[in-house]
Input
Amino acid sequence: MSRRTTRTLIGGAAALGIGLFAALPSALPVSAASGVPTVRLSHPHVLYDLGVHSGVTRAEVLRAAAAAPTFTQYKASVKVGTKSYTYIIAGKNPAKKMASPASVITTELVPLIVKFSNGDSWDPARKDSCDSGASALTRAQNSPVFKSQSWTWGGTKIGTGQITDAYQRADFWKYAKPAGINPKFGINLKMTTLSPVTIHVPNADAAAAITGCGNSRLGLVNVAWLDSLLRKTVIPSLFSRGVNPGTVPFFLLHNVVEYIGSPATACCVGGYHQAYINSHGAQTYGLADYDNSGALGSGLRDITALSHEVGEWQNDPYIDKGRNSNPTPAWGHIGQASGCQSDLEVGDPLAGTTFADTVGGFTYHPQELAFFSWFYHQKPSLGVNGWYSDQGKFTTSAASCT
Output
């Protein structure tokens, strides 16, 4: 990985977006001095990817992707009963024997420095009392999302790689196991760290909650304003620095989440992935909060959101919730889904379910992810150990949802 040095300062805009939901707070009085309201988070509940819409159809996104250079991906279909489901997944098709089944996909990690008009700021590249040992950026760079290690799940050796590489191999273990047709199958994220981008949040789109470390604030930003800024201003500004439809930028926040409409009634979004069409083609991207504030409970710690979003991006890169997603049979009433969903969002059924992984002496908490066979009712599962999720919590396929 490398580090570039130019900083970008951006502010002002408005539009649309969403991802990791965390709590229903009650409002506290607005500070007359700053104009930035403070909210109280009670009983945080972590959810993901709820309502980021690109405003384009699936067909439009796929045409744009086909017309311009993109990252390695494949299109295939699976039949469940009499119905066929077509999907697009990052990497190469593990079910087709090939001499070189492994893929390398360029990923940019982009720290977002968030500044409020009252002087509050959050910088992923700066250490604070929430973790005096390293910054959020350094922790993310050295996390299993980007660092390779050997993996053994349920007594089975998965191989060496990044965590979402190991997940993808375990997901399609029938083909990726040593005796399978593609034992070298996998996806390696070739990560480059770009210099931080600074955003100045208008008072109308800013709020905060009280925490016990760092600057004693959990930053809250209007997700509609932020996502519009990313699409219209930030991502276009990064084209000269290598970001394009053939790469995947992931924006990193530190103890900053988002709200939907009103911080007093719909907080908090902590990460999402999405795609939209710009002048260069179909651009995919993601955003995640590296959280060590403690304000959101055990369901969102350090790389939980980042691992959720990278895993989902790999398996549903052109998501537009309910419109462009890779379709599946309906599932729900599990994980974050209080109703039915019909998409290949591999993190949602296990939202809040994490496991410990220690790298370089630091313990991270990635999220467990559901397998392809869970969504498409395959028996037996293609997955490692006959499982339906990477840590074995799911041992049967999804129940039907109506």
In short: The mean pLDDT is 88. Residues 8-167+182-325 form one domain.
